[in-house]
Amino acid sequence: MEAKTWSAWSLVCVVLAGFGCGRHAEAPFRIEPETPIVIISIDTLRSDRLPAYGHGGVETPAIDRFRSHGILFERAYTHVPLTLPAHASLLTGTLPADHGVRDNLGYTVDAGRAMLLQQRLSEAGYATGAAVSAFVLRRATGIAEGFDVFQDEIEVTTSMGLQGIQRSGDQTLESIRPWLRSAAARPFFLFFHIFEPHSPYDPPEPFASRYDDAYDGEVAAADAIVGDLLEELRSLGVYDRAMVFLLSDHGEGLGEHGEDEHGLLLYRTTLQVPLMVKLPNSERAGDTVARPVQLIDVYPTITSALRITGDEGLPGSSLIDAGDTDVGDRRIYSETFFPRLHCGWSDLASLIVGSNHYIDSPDPELFDLDSDPGELENLVTDRATLVEEFTETLAGFDRTLVAPGATDAETRRRLEALGYLGGASVSDDEDLPDPKTRVHVMRELRLAYRAMSGGDYDSAEMAFLEILEDNQGLEDAWEYLARAQREMGRPDRAVETLARGLEANPGSPRLSMGAATQFFEMGRLDDAAAHADLALTHDPAAAHELLARIALARRDLETAEAEAREAMSIEERRAGPRMVLADVHFAAGRPLEALKVLEAAVEEGIRDEAIRIRLAQVYIAAGQIDRAVGVMSGLEESSKPETMVMFGRLAGIGQQWSDARRWFERALQADPSNGEAKINLGVLAAVEGRLAEARHLLEEGLRADPGSFEGWNALGMIRARSGDADGAVDAWTRALEINPQSHDLLFNLGLAHAEAGRFARAAEYMESFAEVSDGEARERALGLAEQYRQRVRGFGLGIR
What we know:
Blueprint: H1 8-17, E1 37-42, H2 61-69, E2 71-73, E3 76-77, H3 83-92, H4 96-99, H5 117-123, E4 127-131, E5 149-151, H6 169-183, E6 188-194, H7 207-210, H8 214-235, E7 243-247, H9 268-271, E8 272-273, E9 275-278, E10 288-289, E11 293-294, H10 298-305, E12 332-336, H11 338-343, E13 348-353, E14 356-360, E15 365-368, H12 384-394, H13 409-416, H14 439-453, H15 457-470, H16 475-487, H17 491-504, H18 509-521, H19 525-534, H20 540-553, H21 557-570, H22 575-587, H23 591-603, H24 609-621, H25 625-632, H26 641-653, H27 657-670, H28 675-687, H29 691-704, H30 709-721, H31 725-738, H32 744-755, H33 759-771, H34 775-794
Parallel strand pairs: 1-6, 1-7, 2-10, 3-11, 4-5, 4-6
Antiparallel strand pairs: 2-9, 3-8, 7-9, 12-13, 13-14, 14-15
Helix pairs in contact: 6-8, 14-15, 15-16, 16-17, 16-18, 17-18, 18-19, 18-20, 19-20, 20-21, 20-22, 21-22, 22-23, 23-24, 24-25, 24-26, 25-26, 26-27, 26-28, 27-28, 28-29, 28-30, 29-30, 30-31, 31-32, 32-33, 33-34
């Protein structure tokens, strides 16, 4: 059968069976039951950028050696050019419609819907371990289900910035080595994922200096990591008898067809991936297979070779059992909903059959991959019959889009630093733009975001404004623009932007949530609550958390607790609601309950730095400095300013003044507007007797962080020492509003009012202090109160 002509029989075959109908080997390939299984996934690796596939611009000695021991598949393809859904297909052996993951955001892997390879192997007696290098594959996505050990320690040391959402492959390998060594004597399955060469391309030395092309440098770095892993397998004596797969989840645009990265389009550049398989004892070493294969073929290759039953209905087929040259009947399906979910543009789907590649879009395309590998000549008008057959076949695939779930703001921010746009929504409009006509907008969006993430908010604002002139439906751009304006200290302009965004996108829950957050930060609680209510359908956990914060700000503790618990019931591992609940307990005078909430969060493995910082604050307040130091251990390399500030406070408590100053100054370098760092530098200046400098730093810090109890309390002390009694009263009054349980402030306010000549008010504060005190402190306060009242009576003014 010719690759470019199909019979009606073959069309029926793909609809009923999904894939296959090709020739199979006479005897199924089998391996020993205890054969070690290893999958090495090199994220974002184009096959045509490897020497094994003909590229001459980079040296990859480890992969080249591995290729000499195994089978190379010349035409292997992914099903989605995005990390999470591609790996979901790999590890479930199913297409996106079956496992349900259509994007990196808003979807999770449901093991009850599609059984994962590691679960099947575990049932067969295998030890299962995995190590991943990117936040995109964190355990919260469900991809970890069935692994005995899943190393994804990516969030521990950092927050914002690239290093907080990925780690080097070297670190990933070190994290899994202990498990690998312990499992080597048993049948084991290792899934090992590295993020080189995913953008932003920043190869380490010596590769950065060796290659002018940073992508090639990252490919070389990935090769070195793979070489280390393979050497470890050799040293453990398992390499020769293992079945090892080396592959990628998707490719990279690298500027071809206007796409710099991946996810938006479905050309060969992002769909074709390297795939090599080393069989036990290097059987068939050096073989090359020309027929098209796909990532979902890996699962049945393993289960079939191990004689594991129960997966006969999977749409893929064994890479080893099928004929090596039969290319006529395989229908390799791919899709991307990224443009629809993130930009309001049309989703895309494609079929590869032999050398034909058909892309279904508002302006469909057909390419001959043999004669036109760069996919530059659209053959749609020349081969109308073939296009009709492709269209009919695609109708047999489920392309129904289930709306994504909510994604919390912190997760979105971390993924944005990798270049993934943060929003996700579903447009019901059938007349959507073709992504290839808007690809320049994607480039502009990413450049604008990079300007913002680099702190160039002026450039980011200008860029987003230009983008929105012709793309009013881009919720991402509206949100980013408002965020840039907020970072520039222009909250009113940010509110105006969000209002315009809501006019262009009526009822947008995401923009409503952005507006609610902005209004809350501005102290406009009624507006914040109204917009948070509108966001409940989009991100109920975040909306309930914000409603809890609003209620707490209103001192409505009962509502605040109820909203915080509601948020926790929706996402039990979410850190924010636990922080609010702890604050509610503090405000209600239940410090032990607050402590239990925070300690439980840490014990349950909620690896959020904010939780640990807050817990350290509680320990410091309780005088348990050693426990504060303990809970912060391991965060020394964090890029989060709040974490640096906490280390500075701990150094200050130990009277290590130079270390404290160094931490606070580091925090300011990371975030020049950080009010907490300025406040602590002000306290440090006060300790060292530089009162004018201390006052300036405190006042400047409190403009940025007006909710700081420590800042207002310290400013009160500075003003009092400087003879500014009225200023001290103002500062301590603000501090008391923030923390009504700080009873010492009552005494200080009494002294300050007396210093200002307001003896009646001074007496009232001293009496209030006496009511919550005992012993000598109570007697002293009552004595002072009586003195102040005598002064009032002496002036003949009466008590007011």
